[in-house]
Amino acid sequence: MGKLRRARLGVMGGSFNPIHLGHLFAADEVMHALSLEEIIFVTSPRPPFKEESEMLEAETRYLMVAMATATNPRFRVSRVEMDRPGTSYTVDTIEELRKKYPARSEFFFILGMDAARELASWKEPERLLELCSLAVVSRPGFSKRKAAEGLSPEGRELLGHQGVVFVESQGLDISSTEVRKRVKEGRPFRYLLPDPVARYIADRGIYR
Ligand code: ATP
Ligand code: MG
Q1: Which residues are registered as beta bridge partners of 42?
Q2: Domains of the chain, with CATH numbers?
Q3: Which ligand has the minimum distance to the alpha carbon of residue 112?
Q4: What are phi and psi of 99, to 5 degrees?
Q5: Which residue's CA is the nearest one to ligand 1's atom 30?
Q6: How far is the C-alpha of 68 from the C-alpha of 77, rounded, in Å?
């Protein structure tokens, strides 16, 4: 690696309740499309828009993210939000990560098309776009065209920002909500998750 090359780093944030193959496949697709060196998975203990009662304890979610990413040397986990009190906002996270990495590093925050629609309601989205690029990856059921429909002018403007890049992917139609529901109802979920995570959920009786 040349000395003058800027490290390109991906950051994938989420509640990961639990992490599933849709997250990992999306991260891998973005890593390839944007030639990123590594992807840092950031578990949000207290995401702003999620129902509190459905939220598994943060340390357990973080542990499953660590298990899911352990076999990929280019996937890392960070406790940056775990160890910060209060609501988890992406703009604060990127700011903190930027202090921990060499100043020349370039950050790409990865989010699915469904999350991109909500950008205007995030904390300080304009400042976020000064701190990093946004890599918006396809998610089955959320097309780019549909994402733009019914969006506020502000949301539309944010998605048109030059720091927003779209990564087309076939995508995997998996959500944590669906996984939790399947576990609760005793339906199959094993092959929607990395093996160690599926086993952990089954053995501990999580989400039942
Ligand atoms: P929940 O159903 O609980 O909302 P989720 O499956 O949407 O869970 P999150 O933790 O909410 O997972 O998502 C974290 C990030 O990963 C978001 O940016 C989301 O858009 C993205 N993401 C989640 N699942 C997929 C998927 N199957 N394909 C692409 N992106 C995804
Ligand atoms: Mg979600």
Answers
A1: 13, 78
A2: 8-173 (3.40.50.620)
A3: 1
A4: -75, -25
A5: 112
A6: 10
Say how far apart CA 58 and CA 46 lie, in whole Å. Answer: 8
DSSP string, 17-37: TT--HHHHHHHHHHHHHTT-S
Instruction: Provide the CB-side half-sphere exposure for 202 (13 A, CA).
Output: 13
pLDDT at 1: 52
CA 201/CA 18 separation, integer angstroms: 9
Q: Which element (helix H / strand E) includes 106?
A: strand 106-112
Position 63 scores a pLDDT of 98
Atom of ligand 1 nearest to the CA of 26: 29
Q: Ligand 1 site: residues with CB under 6 angstroms?
A: 14-17, 22-23, 26, 111-112, 114-115, 137, 139, 171-172, 174-177
Which residues on adjacent β-strands are paired with residue 43? 14
Inter-residue contact 164 to 137 (CB < 8 Å): no
Token readout for 167 is 């990564």
Is the full-model pTM beyond 0.90?
A: yes
Residue 66, pLDDT score? 98
Closest protein CA for atom 23 of ligand 1: 23
Is residue 93 within a helix (H) or strand (E), and if so which, with residue range?
A: helix 90-100
How many residues in total does the chain contain? 208
Give the tens place of pLDDT for each residue, 80-138.
Answer: 999 999 999 999 999 999 999 999 999 999 999 999 999 999 999 999 999 999 999 99
Distance (Å, whole) CA 69 – CA 75: 6
Average pLDDT of the chain to the nearest whole number: 95
